[in-house]
Structure formats: C-alpha cells, structure tokens
Amino acid sequence: MTHLGGVRIREAAAVLDIVAAGGGTRAMRPFLEMTNLFLKG
Amino acid sequence: MNNSAGTLAGRLYDFLREEAAARRIAAVGIGAIYMAVRLDNGALGLAAAPVTPWSPVAQAAVFPPEESLPGRPAAALLAWLTEGGDPWRTALALATANALIRQERSDFDGDPLDHFQLTAADRVVMVGRFTPLLTRIEATGAALTVLEKDPAKGMVLTPGDRRGRLQDCTLAIITATALLYGDLEDILADLGAPRLVSLLGPSTPMLPPLFAPR
Fold first, then answer.
1. Could you tell me which chain B residue has the CA closest to the CA of A25?
2. pLDDT over threshold 70, residue B2
3. Order of strands, edge to edge, in the sheet holding B143-147?
4. pLDDT of residue B58
5. Chain B within 8 Å of A12 (Cβ-Cβ)?
6. What is the pLDDT of residue B102?
7. Residue range A9-25: mean pLDDT, rounded
8. Which residues of chain B form CATH 3.40.50.11590?
9. 3-state helix, strand, coil in chain A (%, to 5)
C-alpha cells in the first residue's frame, strides 16, 4: 500500500444523522474532510 | 482470543484494543449506505454498509438490536473484527476502529487524484466502483478497468482473470470495503509492481503502521 485516502469528521452529530437517514458521501461532504497519507513502500 | 492474528483485520484489532478498553459506545447509526459509531469521547468513525446475501429476517437473527449497542464497551464491538462471518458486525467493528484512530497527520487534504499524476501510459485498475472518479481518470487517457462484485457496476472476473489485470496495472485504487469482505489481502497479493496502490473511501483506517511491510 502506498496511499491511504480517508476522511476526517468535522461534525459528528450531523454525519451520524445523515448515516442513520440513509445518506451517502455527497450528503456528508459538508461535514467531513478528505484526508490523504502517502506511505513508504 | 484473536482468531485472525496476522490478517489485516486481526492486526487492526491488535493496534487498537488497548485504546478501545478505555472507551464505550455512545451512539450507532445504521443506514443503507454507511454505518457509523460514535464513542463516549465524541469521536465518530464510518464504514460502508456491506451487502449481505441474507434476508432481513436472517440478518436480524444474528445481529444485536441497534438500540442495544450504545453503552457497550468499545472493545466488544472492535473484537468483531476478529470473528468474521457476519459482514454487518465486521462493518460496525471497522467503524469503531475508525472512531478510535485519531490521525492528525495528513499529507494533503482533498481529492487524491490531484496527486496521482495519471497519464495516458497508465493502466488503472479500480477495485470497487468510485463513480465520482471515473470521468476524471478517463480524461487523462489512462486505461481504466473497474472490477466489481456487482456486474451492473463493473467487470466481474474469475480469480485468474482478476489476477491478470492486477498483475498488469500501473496504479490500483482499492475500495476500503474490501476489508469487510476479507479479500483485501488476496487483492494485494495479486498485484504486480504498480507505481501506486491506494486504499480509498470513508471506511479506510488511516493507520499507516497497519500497512507497513512485514
């Protein structure tokens, strides 16, 4: 593995509500950030 | 007892079990697309909701009622990583793991494709369809193969054909949901010598030591 791309949650309550309501990444986007790490092979 | 010692799931459990011992589950959200776990310290983790072959009745028979989960020790849910068998339990365990991982480091924020430097010479294999990325990858001229379990979303190949595609690619983009289905190790083992291997999506455990060469 040389790259990890995940998320950092900025507003947990909002994301939890969206998940429980069946929402996906697009709905959650205002409340999270996409973060990236490069790994040494 | 960790019955999956040595696997990625087992190693993830081992990395986090000490931290998990100090935490309890505050809330759980189970949706059609994602599952979420919030801990008593406010941290929240996500995992994709897995597709299971079971009927809702059969699934409910093996899965604890959602309302019974808050208040449980985080270690109890994390331990489901090591059990296998029920993808829902594995997904909640992965969401618990992601809530426990407090990754402050980020090499960059935003769209990873901005840093992959794709060219028309690249052969990209995407394991699990990331719809938002398709158009941008195709615009680079790179050859793109989408491997899927669902034939409506991509190519469903035999293990041998899949190995051939993975052996030949220059860049692999793998959905973190492969962790839920227990086939991430097989996918990684089938790769040839790509210049970049990316594990991508909100389910990704952002824990570099988990993926360090052993």
1. B202
2. no
3. B108-109, A32-38, A3-9, B196-200, B171-175, B123-127, B143-147
4. 72
5. yes
6. 85
7. 96
8. 112-211
9. 40, 35, 25
Q: Is 80 exceeded by the pLDDT of residue B25?
A: yes
> Between A12, A22, A34, which is nearest B44 by CB?
A12
The Cα B89–Cα B64 span in angstroms is 9
For residue A35, what is the nearest residue in chain B, using CA coordinates?
B109
Of the candidate CATH numbers 3.40.50.300, 3.30.930.10, 3.60.140.10, 3.30.390.100, the domain formed by B7-101 belongs to 3.30.390.100
Whether the per-residue pLDDT at B86 is higher than 90: the answer is no
Tell whether A10 lies on the interface with B, counting CB pairs under 8 A: no
For residue B9, give the H/E element and its range: helix B8-20
Residue from B198, B203, B207 to probe the interface with A (highest A Cβ count within 10 Å): B198
CATH 3.30.390.100 region(s) of chain B? 7-101
Return the minimum-mean-pLDDT range out of A6-10, B162-166, B191-195. Answer: B162-166
The CATH fold of domain B112-211: Rossmann fold (3.40.50)
pLDDT band at B63 (very low <50, low <70, confident <90, very high): confident
pTM: 0.92
Question: Are the Cβ atoms of A19 and B36 closer than 8 angstroms?
Answer: yes
